[in-house]
Amino acid sequence: MIVTIIVFVLIFGVVVIAHELGHFLIAKLNGITVLQFSIGMGPDIIKFTKGGTKYVLKLLPIGGACMFEGEDGIYSTASDGEEKKGQKPEGAFNDANVWARIATVFAGPFFNIILAFLLSLIVVGFSGEVIPTINSLTEGYPALEAGLQEGDIITRIDGERIYLQGEVTFASALSGGEPMEIEYKRDGEKYTTIVTPKFSDQDNRYYIGFTIGETIKCKGLDLIKYSVYEVRYWFKTTIKSLFMLVQGKLSANDLSGPVGIAATIDETIEVTKPYGLPTVVLTMINFAVLLSVNLGIMNLLPLPALDGGRLLFLFIEVVRGKPVSPDKEGLVHFIGFVALMVLMVFVLYNDITRIFAR
C-alpha cells in the first residue's frame, strides 16, 4: 500500500505541476504577476517566497493553483500582502492584453498535452507500439464471415483513421452492435467490408471476432509519430467518454476520483509486478499519460471554476470588446467551485463504496 501511495503522489504531482507550470510560465512571459504557485490541497506543509511569488506544497496530493495578481478583481498590497479591492499593483491579470490572458489560461491544459507527449516518447521508445494487424480470427464471429484474414491491417473504422490496436478495441467495445465499416490493407491494397459486432453474454460486451496487435519498435521519426498517435488515442477516448456521459450512456457512477485512481494504480501494480520492475514503471508512465490528457481536456470544459470556464469569459470579452465585470465573473466561478466540491464528494463516496463492495 505504501508503494501505491508513493506512485500515486508521484503521478499526480508530475501531472499537476505540469499544468500549473504552464499557467506560471506564460503568465511570467506576459508580465502577469503570480502571487502563489501551489501544489496540492489542504494545510500548507512547505512554503517559501521567491521573486514575489509564494511557493506552497500542501498536505493532500491532489489539485493545485496558480494565483495571479488582480484575478477576479482582488488585488494585493505591496506592504502587507492583504487582499483589498480597488488597488492595482503592477502586473495585474486583468490589465494584461486579452490574448495574453487567454494564452495564460490555456497554457495549463496545453502543458498537460505536452507532458503526455513527452511521457509517450519514453513508453513507446522502450516498449514499442502495437499496430492493428490481425493475428487470428474466431469461428462463429463476424470478422471471419466478412472476409478478413490474418495479416490484414485495419486502417479505418467508419471513416475514422486508425493507427493503434487500442483504437480498434475501443471502437468494437462501443459499437453497441451497430454495423461497422472497416477499411483494411492487404498486400499493399486497400479493401472495405461491413462487420456487425456480436454480443458476448459472458463478457457483457460486443466483439468483432479477431485477435489483433503487432508490436513494432519505434526509433527516430517513427518514435515521434507513434508518440503523437498515443496521445491522440487517449485524447479521442476521453472526448468520446465525455460524449457518452452527456448522452446518458455512462453515468456519474462511472466517474473516478483520487481514491478510485489510487485503487486502479494498486491493481495495475499487482497485475504487472510478475513481469518485472521495468514493466511496472512503463505501465505507470502510460497511466500518467492517460491522466495528463484527461486533466487537460477536463480543464478545457466551459464550466465555471475550470480553465475552460475562464476562457469562455475571455472569449466573450473578445466578442463584446470589453470584459465582464470581475465581481460577476468571480461569483460565477465561486458557484462553480462549490458545485465542483460537491461533485468531488459524490465521486469520493462512489470510489469508497466500490472499493468496499469488491
Strand order of the largest sheet: 7-6-8-9
Distance between the termini: 17 Å
**Domain module tally:** 2
Structural class: alpha+beta
Global shape: elongated
Number of strands: 12
Cα radius of gyration in angstroms: 24 Å
Uncertain ranges: 78-86
How much strand content do the residues show?
15-25%
Instruction: Profile the largest sheet.
Output: 4 strands, antiparallel
Report the helical percentage.
40-55%
- Output the number of helix runs: 9
Layout of strands and helices, then pairs:
Blueprint: H1 2-29, E1 34-50, E2 53-68, E3 75-76, E4 83-84, H2 98-127, E5 129-137, H3 142-145, E6 153-157, E7 160-161, H4 165-173, E8 180-186, E9 189-195, E10 198-200, E11 205-207, E12 210-216, H5 221-246, H6 258-272, H7 277-299, H8 307-320, H9 326-357
Antiparallel strand pairs: 1-2, 3-4, 5-12, 6-7, 6-8, 8-9, 10-11
Helix pairs in contact: 1-2, 1-6, 1-7, 2-5, 2-7, 2-8, 5-7, 6-7, 6-9
Quick description:
With 358 residues, the chain is α+β, with helices and mostly antiparallel strands. It has helices spanning 2-29, 98-127, 142-145, 165-173, 221-246, 258-272, 277-299, 307-320, 326-357, and strands spanning 34-50, 53-68, 75-76, 83-84, 129-137, 153-157, 160-161, 180-186, 189-195, 198-200, 205-207, 210-216.
